Amino acid sequence: MIALVFATLVAVLMASATYLLLQRNPVRMVIGLGLFTHAVNLLVFGTSVSHRGQPPIIVDKAAFNGDISQFVDPLPQALILTAIVISFGIVAFLIALLHRRNSLEAVESCTDRVDDPFAMEPAAALEAVDEDYEWLEDVVLKRELRKPKRTRR
Amino acid sequence: MKPPTSGGGVTCELPYNGSMLTNLLALLAVSGPILWLLRPHRWRHAGWLAAVAPAAVTAWLLGQLGPVSQGITLNEHYSWSQALGLALDLRLDGLGLFFGLIIAGMGTAIAVYAGYYFEKASTLGRFYALLFLFMASMLGLVWADNLLALFVFWEGTSITSYLLISFKLTDSNALEGARRALVVTGIGALAMLGGFVLLGQMAGTYSISGLLALPPNTFTGHALFVPMLGLVLLGAFTKSAQFPFHFWLPGAMAAPTPASAYLHSATMVKAGVYLLARLHPALAESPLWFWALFSVGGITMLLGAVIALRHYDLKAILAYATVSQLGVLVMLLAFDVKLATVAAVVGILAHALYKGPLFMVAGIVDHATGTRDIRKLAGLARSLPLVGAAAILAAISMAGLIPTFGFLAKELLLENFFALIESGQTQLGWAGLAATVIAGALFVAYSLIILWEAFLRRKPALKAAKIEHAPSALFVLPVLALTLVGAAIPFFLTAIENTLFAVPVAAITAAPAELHLALWHGWTPIFLTSLLAIALGALIFTQRERVRKLFASGIQVSGARAFDGLVDGLYALAGWSTRTLQGSSFPTQISIPLLAAAGVVIYAVSLNLVADLRIDWNAVPTFYEVVLPTLAIVATLAIARAQSRLSAIISLGLVGVVVLLIYVFFSAPDLALTQFLVEVLTLVLLVLVFYRIPHHAYPKQPKHRSMKYLLISLAVGVWGFGMALVAAGEPLFPLISDFFSLNATAAHGGNIVNVILVDFRGFDTLGEITVMVVAALGGYALLRASRMRPIKAEEDFEEPYDA
Question: Domains in chain A: how many in total?
Fold first, then answer.
């Protein structure tokens, strides 16, 4: 029964996460990624729920006699701990990326160049890849051009 | 470089402990780069210095003729990778010696010739380096006594050939021709390697002499004989430019002429022929071998001869004539009789001794007049008498006129078919005879065309090319020397027939051979047929303009164009698949792997794996363990339908809290703590940043696309459901976790999860830290970059490259 409860939860989380990831709205995509993380973590955690037991902590090391049947499986926990931290790093990076994109869009002259690549039709998106970086070239070029100009002045 | 005396310990019984063959290969491989370093283009007569090494090899090989003809072979063995059966085994037997003499002898002439051909061009050094590397690979190929070592040398010749064809790096024709040659011979070589592995499995050894010692039905009776033969033949046919792979050879003519004369006429293209001859004793009994070689060789012979008439470029004519001649050799090796083998051996040497010089003559003509188009040439025999003499000698040998070496080769070829008719296989014999007569007539025709149009007639068809600088006598000397050797051989047949020719024949037929060759047999049917071919050829020659017109109007099927189309198609396919699978929008990109994963689960269900799940259905959850997940499901669905950003974020937080509580209920305090911290941080970040992002009115998805995404999401949900059920089942294998639990105290820790993270799996944690550092640096850079605003486009933009 527990297995069924877990499986249902994982299924709903993954389906919703996928649905959100497929959206155009980048905010929803980030949230979708967060949900996907929960889903995968619970999936891994599900391997250790059928055997209940104590938290895998040896309280008295001196008295420990090698009886490990009292503990739950520690390995999924170790894996998930790593996963939680890494996915947080990725979500944080994505949020920074969104922030950066937002600040670029705020500049009027660039809105026509930096378009939302996710909002495009597949064929147009291919061409957009080049255009996406044009502004960057312009920026770098003009910075390079500016420097000597200023010194001349 | 003294030849060892034949009695000095070199016998077939006693093991030979020398390393002469290896030394010679090393000498050639090293002398090329050394020549390059010496910058040979500074000296006018550098070619003579370059010729020292191949001349030494030739001299030594000539010294071996005597011992080898008495059945003495030299064997050298170097272990390379025993587990793979790979060894650098070298063996000098009759066939290896025969080919070795052609390679080294021609190499000597080519080395001298190239020195004058390049005439102080600074690329001469590079040419020598490649040429000598090729020479070493080619000699290794014919001396190798291990299938895998033979493959390595085989690829060595392909690569050096590629580099020599693309020698002129600015010429796009040369680059394309080189690519074609490499791809075609490379595909063939890979197939051949597969065939070699099969062959080695059948024989239980990769040693060539070892597998040839086995009874032939070891191979012909094997279940995998047909695929093995097909793969090996593919390698031989691609290398020797057999139909339908012949197209790479004319494309290879973009190489400098010394390379064309050497690689693409005298030696490398004969590697396929060599392989067929080498494996002849083991495989030739099979009827499949006969029909494959006979038909492919015959078609190639006719096709090459016909196409040669269509061309006006001297080198192109010679290239197709070479294709035709290679067809003849392959066709001859189809037969498992001594006579055909003799014809093939004589044909190989005769071809090397007339086609090589003709290529070299073409190079000299090109060098002197700046063109190789025979329509612009005339009367070269008068203006360049030495070149003319060499050309006439070589061309009458190509035409097979009496009393040349080529005549002898053709007589033997015809004799083979007459013998076939006498032996009862009349239809086959007559078909072969007819094809040979036609090909022979065409040979005569274009030999006469070359001779007449370029060398003898007074007025050219188009505006004549002038002789800008006449070649020095030393330039012509190697060409003349080769043709003279070729012209002299028929008159010394009794002196050499039982050394030079009998030795390879014995190796191919795997039986001792005694030959009685003669130039003149009297007025036999063979001779009359030969005369018929010559007469037909003369007729075609007189009607050559009509024939050319006829061929020019025919359908132009170009193998090269078909090949290029194939390559372009491959690129198009790669582009299409990249665009469809990866290049398009993000939703498509993630849908494909997710759907593929979902497909795996559906496949598993179809395999009825559900019965193997082994889930403990009696484990009853507590009240909270049902309520909390239900709450999470509701919150998740709320996110998917959320209208406002804040409600979505709060719902995400709710899901996080439920996950956290699940960790608590199921005895994972460390996870719960970490999840709590991360959840709070994520929430804060999301609220902070999303608050600053203006609302976009994202256009609503079209209905059909929403439905598509919904279906994809449902499929992924099913996948997750299946995965979770599998995960919850009893483990199929013993867990590694018990090791960690039992040994945690040995690592001085009580918290087993922590011990795993920092001790047992410490490197994983290091990786995790690395990811965090990278993410932090990236995030920092992005946030800093936000201050760097793009400048307005048109305002103060200046032409960047104007100054």
Answer: 2
